[in-house]
Amino acid sequence: MLGDTAIFCRRIALAAAAACILTIVILEMAGCGRGRVVVVDDAALKAADADPANWITYGQTYSEQRFSHLQQIDEQTVGRLGLAWFADLGTLRGLEATPLVNDGVLYTTSAWSLVYAFDARTGHLLWQYDPHVPKDHAKFVCCDVVNRGVALYRGRVYVGTLDGRLIALDAKTGAAVWDVQTTPKDGPYAITGAPRIAKGRVIIGNAGAEYAVRGYVSAYDAETGNLIWRTYTVPGDPSKPFESEAMRRAAATWSGEWWKAGGGGTAWDTIVYDPETDFVFFGTGNGSPWYDRLRSKGDNLYIASIVALRVSNGEQVWAYQTTPGDNWDYDATQPLMLATLTVEGQQRTVLMQANKNGFFYELDPATGKLISARPYAEMNWATGIDSNGRPMENAAVRKLKDATIVKPSSAGAHNWHPLSFNPVTGLVYMGVLDATSIQAVTSGWKINLHDQTTGLDRGYVGPVRKQWLTLKPAGKLVAWNPAAQREAWHVELPDPGSGGTLSTAGNLVFHGRADGKLRAYRATDGKLLWEFDAGIGIMAPPMTYQVDGTQYVAVLAGWGGPEVLGNRATGKGKVAPGKLLSFSLGGSATLPRYEPVVQPVPMPTFKLAASRPEIETGRVLYATFCARCHGADVVSGGSVPDLRYAPAGMHEKFEEVVRGGALREVGMPSFSEDLTPAQVRLIQAYVLDRAHESARTEAASR
Ligand code: CA
């Protein structure tokens, strides 16, 4: 039900949407801008910039700039910012969502695709929805059981779930209205990205290119949940008819029997709708398997590409491939953003992306033509972009004999973490990771239809690894001038990893970090103005809203992802129970401190006879199947059990757990299709050997 004031405010907002500053002044004078009832419809989504009290879509507006006009919290007042309230989300897994706010209600997701609605003023829980994702679907997720948030539309909340469903909920009650499977049921696909709404359609992609899958994007009718269109990103089996001319063209850039491993190219994160062109833009991931020699010769369209579709029918309009024939997991799925810039004296609208591969791209949204691409991070795989928009590759890096050190790493110089653009400073604010990865190809690779099938030799311990271990990753917050394509300022980070950013008209940029600090900087020059120590690593982007005249800044704090699970050096961050935090001026709430007690590794009592060569085989199997969650070298990153601590009782039923799925309910999948009982025994021998070694070392150091 719309109140009179709400209708009035809404009319002003729509009438004056074109001149946004004026709109805000009028709305403030009229007593609007307090998170009043706004029905999130097409008009409201188009005019989202004129209603800064609410944050009704993932990137705040269709252009996804994440720039708020609110300025109660500004460079003068931010020193008084304090915690207004917090809510426990009961998980040790990564939290990546952007909360949405409408009409005083904050909607967010958590790990395992749980959805929450809170009173945005108090943090009082209004409802919670659990889609009951089968916990063993964690096997089909490369990078933690995360979710990046919901979409709002006409009184409903839309969420994509880890097991590939798209669900519409009643925004008032959290009751499910419809629930559709968007991926092959129980197949190795997942959804971690937030849906977007365009003209009554819910647009959703999926993840899974570390597995044998074929990427696609789907549009569903928001009202009914009926599929309207589905557009594949890579060609299927050429003995069957191609779905489109685009797929026929793409097939000419593949060779061999690529479709048997699916081809990959999943659209697992960014989706941006542009009302100007009526196009939907998204990015596609790596090919499956990762390495061109295992997959196919050629460019392999449209993997690692930025793609535009017509929203009406899903027809491909243009595509720009950022990493032809990708060989390094250089997904092009990072956040896309539309902005008006003055490029060489001319005002023009550009589609921007800080790509995993280290280039900052600016494309013409109407044609996909490259305007410019400049490195924003160090790289060794390419030296620049030629006049045809093609990267000039370093052939030695692609050649990959024994193993190769590649920069940026497969985590990307920038990844899914949302960035923000401040049109006043003209700067884009983003976390940048300066790291390398070691790429080694498995010998005798065969497609695995039941598990990851990247072709990466995860057990590689050859000479290149020694060199690689000496290369320390680093991270920074960078303010990038996209008009000039150069860095304006940066701040070094104590830990390499960091979260997304928020920009505001208060000349502020907010940024969360791996060490648990949420910080506010002066947007113009990077001067630190405020800091809050959450004691929980922050990967998610902050957002802001206003209710009853009070501006809040909210962020999810929860550190996870592949670096934590795999316990890789690039991901050191504070793992602690996840929370939703909301700040306002004068806020005085305090967070309970979380001090995990680390017990010494006990000397295992369980006996299992194994030779050195058997333990070595167990090490390679562990690295291939177990390390991605339980941690490299059997040292957990903190969110999944550390197997060195497994008691004798657990070792007695080791095979029951690993092959039999005895702990399926808590997220430990069955590996019965991947591992024989004898192989499980070798893994167990290696785990016990590592526990012995740790216990001995720790006892000696006491
Ligand atoms: Ca990938």
Secondary-structure topology with pairs:
Layout lengths: L3 H12 L4 H10 L12 H5 L20 E2 L12 E8 L11 E3 L2 E5 L5 E5 L5 E5 L21 E3 L2 E5 L4 E6 L5 E6 L14 E3 L2 E4 L11 E6 L5 E6 L12 H7 L11 E2 L6 E4 L4 E5 L3 E2 L3 H4 L9 E6 L5 E6 L15 E7 L2 E9 L4 E5 L6 E6 L6 E4 L5 E3 L1 H5 L4 E3 L13 E3 L4 E8 L2 E3 L23 H7 L4 E8 L4 E7 L5 E7 L3 E6 L3 E6 L5 E6 L9 E5 L2 E8 L4 H4 L13 E7 L26 H14 L1 H4 L17 H5 L1 H5 L18 H25 L1
Parallel strand pairs: 1-33
Antiparallel strand pairs: 2-39, 3-4, 4-5, 5-6, 7-8, 8-9, 9-10, 11-12, 12-13, 13-14, 15-18, 16-17, 17-19, 19-20, 21-22, 22-23, 23-24, 25-26, 27-30, 28-29, 29-31, 31-32, 33-34, 34-35, 35-36, 37-38, 38-39
The site of calcium ion (CA) has 5 residues, from loops.
Q: What ions, cofactors and ligands are bound?
A: calcium ion
- Taking the alpha carbons of the first and last residues, their distance comes to 67 Å
Mind telling me which CATH architecture of the domain at 66-93 and 416-436 and 471-596 this is? Beta Barrel
Say what the CATH topology of the domain at 66-93 and 416-436 and 471-596 is. Lipocalin
Residue share in helices?
A: 10-25%
Low-confidence stretches: 1-35
Roughly what fraction of the amino acids lie in strands? 25-35%
Shape descriptor reads globular
**In DSSP terms, counting alpha (H) and pi (I) runs of 4 or more, how many helices?**
13
Report the mean per-residue pLDDT as an integer: 93
Give me the side-by-side strand order of the main sheet.
Answer: 1-33-34-35-36
What is the CATH class designation of the domain at 66-93 and 416-436 and 471-596? Mainly Beta
The assigned structural class equals: alpha+beta
Main beta sheet strand tally, sense and closure:
5 strands, mixed
Query: Rounded to an integer, what's the Rg over CA atoms?
Result: 25 Å
For the secondary structure, the number of strands is 39
